[in-house]
Amino acid sequence: MNENIIIAGSGGQGVLTLGLFLAQAGLKEGKKVTWLPSYGAEKRGGFSFCSVVISDEEIFSPLVAYPDTLLLFDQRAAEAYKNSVTEKTFVIENTSLIKNDVVLTGRKTLIPATDIATSMDFVKAANIVMAGAYFGATGKFLQTTGEQVMGEMLKGRNSHAFEKNLKAFSEGMKFIKNPALVAGVAFIKNLRLLKKKK
Amino acid sequence: MNENIIIAGSGGQGVLTLGLFLAQAGLKEGKKVTWLPSYGAEKRGGFSFCSVVISDEEIFSPLVAYPDTLLLFDQRAAEAYKNSVTEKTFVIENTSLIKNDVVLTGRKTLIPATDIATSMDFVKAANIVMAGAYFGATGKFLQTTGEQVMGEMLKGRNSHAFEKNLKAFSEGMKFIKNPALVAGVAFIKNLRLLKKKK
Amino acid sequence: MKEKVLYKRPVALSEKPFSYCPGCTHSTIHKLIAEIVDELGIREKTIGVAPVGCAVFAYDFWNFDVTEAAHGRAPVVATAIKRIMPEKVVFSYQGDGDLASIGMAEIIHTANRGENLTVIFINNTNYGMTGGQMAPTTLAKQVTTTSPLGRDVKTSGYPIRMSELLLPLQGVKYIERVKATDAISIIRTKKAIKKAFMNQITHVGFSFIEVLSNCPTNWKKDPVESNKWVDETMAEFFQIGKIKDIQ
Amino acid sequence: MKEKVLYKRPVALSEKPFSYCPGCTHSTIHKLIAEIVDELGIREKTIGVAPVGCAVFAYDFWNFDVTEAAHGRAPVVATAIKRIMPEKVVFSYQGDGDLASIGMAEIIHTANRGENLTVIFINNTNYGMTGGQMAPTTLAKQVTTTSPLGRDVKTSGYPIRMSELLLPLQGVKYIERVKATDAISIIRTKKAIKKAFMNQITHVGFSFIEVLSNCPTNWKKDPVESNKWVDETMAEFFQIGKIKDIQ
Amino acid sequence: MRKGKIKIDENRCKGCKLCIPECKVDEIRMSTKSNKYGYNIVEFRAANRCNACTLCAIVCPEAAIEVFELLEDDK
Amino acid sequence: MRKGKIKIDENRCKGCKLCIPECKVDEIRMSTKSNKYGYNIVEFRAANRCNACTLCAIVCPEAAIEVFELLEDDK
Amino acid sequence: MNGNGTVFIKGNHAIVEAALDAGCRFYAGYPITPQNEIPEYMSKRMPEEKGVFIQAESELISINMVFGAATTGARAMTTSSSPGMSLMQEGISYMAGAELPGVLVNVMRGGPGLGNISPSQSDYYQAVKPGHGDFHMITLAPSNLQEMYDYTFDAFDLADKYRNPVMILTDGLLGQMMESMDMKHDRKPLYPDAKKEWALTGAVGRKGQRIVSLLMDPGVLEAHNIKLGKKWKTMIENERKYELFNVNEETQYLIVAFGSMARISKGAMKLMKDLKIGLFRPITVWPYPYEELKKAAAGVKKVFVFEMNQGQMLDDVKIGLEGSKPVEFFGRAGGGVPMPEELCDFINKNK
Amino acid sequence: MNGNGTVFIKGNHAIVEAALDAGCRFYAGYPITPQNEIPEYMSKRMPEEKGVFIQAESELISINMVFGAATTGARAMTTSSSPGMSLMQEGISYMAGAELPGVLVNVMRGGPGLGNISPSQSDYYQAVKPGHGDFHMITLAPSNLQEMYDYTFDAFDLADKYRNPVMILTDGLLGQMMESMDMKHDRKPLYPDAKKEWALTGAVGRKGQRIVSLLMDPGVLEAHNIKLGKKWKTMIENERKYELFNVNEETQYLIVAFGSMARISKGAMKLMKDLKIGLFRPITVWPYPYEELKKAAAGVKKVFVFEMNQGQMLDDVKIGLEGSKPVEFFGRAGGGVPMPEELCDFINKNK
Ligand SMILES: Cc1ncc(C[n+]2csc(CCOP(=O)(O)OP(=O)(O)O)c2C)c(N)n1
Ligand SMILES: Cc1ncc(C[n+]2csc(CCOP(=O)(O)OP(=O)(O)O)c2C)c(N)n1
Ligand code: SF4
Ligand code: SF4
Ligand code: SF4
Ligand code: SF4
Ligand code: SF4
Ligand code: SF4
Ligand SMILES: [Mg+2]
Ligand SMILES: [Mg+2]
Question: H169 and H181: one domain?
Fold first, then answer.
């Protein structure tokens, strides 16, 4: 296994935590892992992104240029990363904040993560919804691994928090596994893409 | 001509000014000259010394290790410089402040410069007395050169100052040129030296 | 119906949107400075010196000449500029980490020399840009990323009141501490900053305006709550008002 | 007749004669510190931090542990020592160039943190060691090697009164300005310095003693005249007395 | 009473909500819109109560609000 | 009155003259001597007026002066 | 976290844990990206270990506090990033002059000036040739988190061994990234109980002693410098450290790279298995392993020098090679971090 | 004084006169031996020329004032000695980053730390490899008073030509000594009237402009660094300066020395006329005239490197020679100044 992930969005969206979550999942399944945030603390509503590499072998470069999986949180992120997508890239887009489809290559899955989180009255969990989408869509890690990691990362917080997060996670998985829902979103979004491909 | 001079004493005795005086005399007579003070401003009653090189040719090293002429103002200076004296060195010692004769090599002339200056009620002019001694004893520069330089260095000061300095200068010359006086001082002082030499 | 414009974006601001966090006082003060520059008609002779701190990007937002000093050194950069071009209007703009921590010597000596400058001091009780560490202005017991248990005055000392500290220096002509938490206080603040600029133009001398400011992001409070905290907690220790005024 | 020793050279002084100029206040204060260390019996737990300035050689004269800080940084060197060994008696000894010019940030932050230290501040209105240049403490109109026409307060500012400057900092417990121009004032000075040491021993906190000092060499005055200038001219601007005292 | 209106530059508004309490006549509220930077922004109600007091503009950190006084044409 | 005497360490004295005015009984004066560093130093007159007040020692920057009280043997 | 001493940790946190394990009980530091996690984490961890944490008000204050702490014999550290390190140059020189141990960490970012906060190696020059005066400072350049931890620990031992400041030269990439590594909480510091006779701990039963760097008497400073020079020679003899990776008789090209760039170079080597490429990685960039480099390069056709700067270590490579091999340089500047593919391209074009 | 433009002058004063002649109208400096005569003399002379003299309260303040002055387009200078120069490293990097001209003079003294106040060349390292980040600074090393004056003047021209700080690297020997030299009051500065379009003089009829060194947008700092790198290449091409003295086909030994040490070496050569010794003197110690050195050494048996430090320029000699010649080093450390005789001895023993 050699999974190169980029997660991109804006400060406050939980981009780095999502990266950490995936990294921990990798570790839990016995992989080598590196996690690299966007450099330093850009506090002023700027970009936020991170590279996560999960591999069976020693990892040399923790920086990912052409990801195997790309998780995009918002429009700016999509603009910024559209060129890092290759034919082999699998893209997960948060359609709640990406209205204008600019990623024209790669395989793609769409999920209105922010809307899902908002509907749970837990807007901060959009990243966990994205995590669920990642687990559901790629199948690279066991769902139970994800749940275990979540438990560890929320250690010390009350059980309510844990359950809410778990819910967000499974909502993400559920959404992505429901072909109808995904297709519903993806159909419209990908029309242009399909046209181009032809 | 290649005259390497060291002047040594303590802060406040006019050691550096004496060096400058000799340097200017050299310049006035068309020589190349360098003047180098003790490094920096050691303000706290410390050593004061300077190297003056006067030469017909370009001067490379402004630092003098083995002087042709060594002017010593006080005991500490004598202690510090006794080892830089070679057979060819000509030493002028201020016996007012050098009670203990430690310079055992080289040719030597003794002058109670501070006493002479004090007797003129102008204790600060001990260095000018020493300058006179230098001019008188070495004959390396014209007396008139010395007087001219003095005039230039005191430019802007009142004529009284000039005359007092001139007086000190000529007292120094006079003393050194009077074999009786010099011998009188030198005789006692050099006894030990003479004994050693034998 | 005809429309009369009562408020519009000042000309001395560039088109670029502020990169500061929503509700941040930096934006408000940037805007006020631009308004004042417009009102005094000095855009062509104003030179700003930006700090190292969140406002390091100030040059992107003001449409007059701006340079950026090393961390803490803005007042001396401004001094050199003003000495060379005494007819220009020169100001430095600094955060509390910049001015009250690393730049303590620079601000004191500049103030003491009585340079005919204006200094705008944005006190938000922490190092905003680097992620909310404790600053010399952090309140007692305030939690920051480097005072996880709250500022302990026994080891870190009490917060420094810069305005009061500069008070005894004879070169200092005008000091006022203001805030910018609502329209009324913003109007007062503008008046103070304008006066500080005028002091420079009329050769009165060194003026210092301390603005009690928020940092919603690092305080982990929304802008409205942040401003409330400024009003209620911060302003209790850092008393608002004119501290010195010599004409 | 028997002889009873009423005054003798303190044990906390080394044998080495002071290298300071005749009549220099540095010597007097060095001696006083040694007397106090003797009297308090703390030679074995005193650690001094010497400055860069004429007193850079202090380590040669005190017979207790001494280190030498970079120019202006003595208070922070002392802080680290004291924090690691709170049971020791730690003081810094600094000139006005060292403390009030390059070391301004260090003294203010140390004072503000309220470090339990003693700072001895030798104010002789110039940079003695480097040859008498203007210092932040140089009096208005005073001629120095870098103010050949006398200090111009319009460009160089007024002299800084360090004791008053530190006054508002809450961490500071004791400030007194003294002089050492005759036996009486020396006795008073000794009392002040001793109190500053005692404050440290009894954990009262940061104490600051400013000693109006002479510099006969650079002032080009003999020691007696120098002290007279301290009494008459310097002490007029820098008022002698207790400035702060909190127990 | 004076009549006024405001114009909010949508792409400058960061939804900080500081303007809302400034408006004593409740002419500003959160909208459901996000701007191109993803900020949930405020909107002018245009409920005809605005008196052009400018307080909202004064408080707006982003200089995102313009205020107009509406003058009777015949004046 | 108390009787006293002082001892001046010749090689420590720098001839600064600060002690001279401190002695209210005029027991200290410039000497004609120079010490090994070339300083013209002061001397104790020993005119039997010293009262061991220690002021000269207190003022001496060089800690060059020691002060002794002279006690009657039988006391 | 992952049991058995293995933790998944951030580079900046690894430095803190190593320092504490090595017995560091004094830390003073000032915020600067990308090393803020060090003072932040320290502010929590140091008090737990009963040590002194001070948030200094500037980098000048940091380094001079470390100076003060070192005079007491305590193990002390400060950390910063590029502009902050520039401000410490005087203090570093003072520490070396006064022969004081201490550990300095530079988590480099892009320069010059304020630059940016991306990873960079552009302080190599200043690290290996710091401050004024004749002195040297051992400088270790880790290239993964295990080394961040291990070498920080080593740095304290080396500092005490030589009574000299020691620097960890790393960058925002290693400081910010997370990776697994083994914690060695039970590693024993060298000389943990060694009585530092020279330290200022109060003149109990002895004369006062001093720690100074001013030596004005003629000749004394020169003698001191010569002593420091000898110490430096011993460091050169004993402390040169480097890694050879894939260097053998068949190696045709040799990459020379340190720190982050070395690990990225390994990534490139992995992509180019058909070319016989070896890597020489100086671990002590000062003392530089000159002879070892020359030896490693002996059989190769060409030497490639890769740095995240415009060619600073290149000078040392030239000194080491003494003109024996052609050298090609590739660098990324101003915070640019290359991908392995870029290095492959460069090698292919210039081999 | 001696008519015809010839004056007998102190090195430190020569620097002041040169700066004023070159149109320097802003000086900020802080006292430190052995350069105190510069601020002292400046405090008198600068106001006479209607320029700004400020006694800065620290070296940090000096350099940052020079930064500020430079933003206005004014010619500005600061001076210091070794420890003070260490404190300026951040500021120098900022100036280079912001592309600001300015002249810095380092009158070196013994180090490390406070060291002493004797002449020394032990800041060579810091001078040629200053501050953080990728930047370079032309550094001129005069060896007599004429050059103190001439190169200080040149420094202002070079600074403006490249919008970069330029350093004069000299020492207490040259700063404190007096010697005769020709004053050239009527020499015209290059670009005296050139409009510095980039300067901040008020945004009259234009948009506001900026002088900064923070470049956060991805890639922008890298592009800026590459631009600075190109500028540096131009400096290397155009500004290398050196002196050959007694170097010809017959030369058997080559001395390499700069500044004071070069003149003392000439003194030694004079004493050893029977040996065929030449001198290679880098005048710009940065950019270092590597190729010229190699060429000069081509025919000699051995190269002697003499420095008033423990071998700092030696690195550059090695880079230049590329192992082509054996090298012997002699240095005096900690403020020691050799006599020509010592150099002769060393040559005789090691030739
Ligand atoms: C010499 C140096 N030290 C540290 C930093 C890192 N740094 C950048 S901004 C900043 C503090 C900013 O805090 P403040 O001045 O309060 O401004 P704010 O962001 O709060 O407005 C620091 C420490 C730096 N750039 N340079
Ligand atoms: C960084 C640095 N800058 C400047 C100096 C030079 N210097 C040595 S002593 C001194 C000033 C001393 O003045 P002050 O502190 O008033 O002490 P004084 O000699 O008057 O007692 C200076 C500037 C230095 N050693 N280091
Ligand atoms: S981090 Fe704080 S100070 Fe900086 S822009 Fe955000 S809110 Fe304002
Ligand atoms: S120079 Fe001044 S301060 Fe220094 S020792 Fe002499 S008199 Fe004292
Ligand atoms: S101008 Fe006044 S009344 Fe109108 S919207 Fe703004 S705050 Fe409300
Ligand atoms: S104050 Fe300005 S930025 Fe904030 S919500 Fe209102 S319009 Fe938007
Ligand atoms: S002790 Fe008193 S009385 Fe005796 S000599 Fe000294 S000052 Fe005079
Ligand atoms: S006070 Fe001391 S040093 Fe001065 S003259 Fe008297 S004995 Fe000598
Ligand atoms: Mg702040
Ligand atoms: Mg002083």
Answer: yes
